[in-house]
Amino acid sequence: MFSDNMKMSNDKNTSKYISLILRHKPETIGITLDEHGWANVDELIAGVNKTHPLDMEGLERIVAEDEKQRYSFNEDKTLIRANQGHSVPVDVELEEVEPPQILYHGTGEKYTSSIEEQGLIPKSRLYVHLSADEETARKVGMRHGKPVIYIVQSGWMYKRGFKFYRSLNGVWLIKDVPLKYLKRLSFDDKEIKSVITDVDSILSQLELDDNDIDCPSRAETIYEVVKNKYGWENLQQAIIRILLDDSRSLDDYCEMANVVWIASLEKSEGVPIRFRKKTVLGLLYYRLEEKDFTDMHNDYENLLWSIACNFYHLDFCNSRYDPLKDEKIKKKLKQYGISI
Prior knowledge:
Elements: H1 2-23, E1 39-40, H2 41-48, H3 56-65, E2 71-73, E3 79-82, E4 103-108, H4 112-118, E5 128-130, H5 134-142, E6 147-152, H6 154-159, E7 165-166, E8 172-174, E9 182-184, H7 189-203, H8 218-230, H9 232-244, H10 250-268, H11 277-288, H12 297-312, H13 327-334
Antiparallel strand pairs: 1-3, 2-3, 4-6, 5-8, 6-9, 7-8
Helix pairs in contact: 1-3, 7-8, 7-9, 8-9, 8-10, 9-10, 9-11, 10-11, 10-12, 11-12, 11-13
């Protein structure tokens, strides 16, 4: 049993080394890859053997038993290559494939700020790697720390001309995923609570005059300061939680509407802001549309309608649309226990 365990441990270490060579640094052992990523098997074994004991039997076992199916032989097993994950410029002869409607990307929490600013980019690799299911994406994310999962609207992307490929081991590959096709699936509860704490701190600052054009309003401060600190997706989650909180004041709800309005204007100026439109709009209307604002009622009624028009590209003066009669919005609110 000890011998088998030792063999498994050696194979795992050797496999990692082979992965480094075939994906990134063939020069480490003095070999080259051809244009399609193939390496000569004899040369690979000889080079790896300088630091990691390896023979043909061991290489065949590594290829066959690798749980991620990283490698492939050619027909007569004279050549070997990595199936995907290269940083060196090779063409592994991937075939374009129509993807399912949804794919997943798993990553570490430390990378979310970058992703939520620029989308998914390959960085040092040739392609962005996507998973076919949530559990696989979670396992990928765990390799980078605390996992965060994003849903990729792959079906929508494919219809708009994006090319998807699938490697022999089932990994989906694409050159990049713009931000508008991403939806964050998992959030850190402690972090969202920290966002809400920061929002509340700004809401309580009386020196921020909402009516002074020379002084940033509370909503502007929340959007700029909190968004920059935590990212828009986290701020949006905090807004949703505040709007769901029955104990909140009308003033809090109004300020959340102002923050959303500022964000919607940024979006119209080309900044990549993604909204959970139906959730946010439904909650804003639920909290504010039927309230008595006295002198402010018309202002906030116009604000809510402006947000709806911006979200759905409606004509402010000539469109007819009632978010609280939108069946999709009603269905979304029902998920939060709100019946309209």
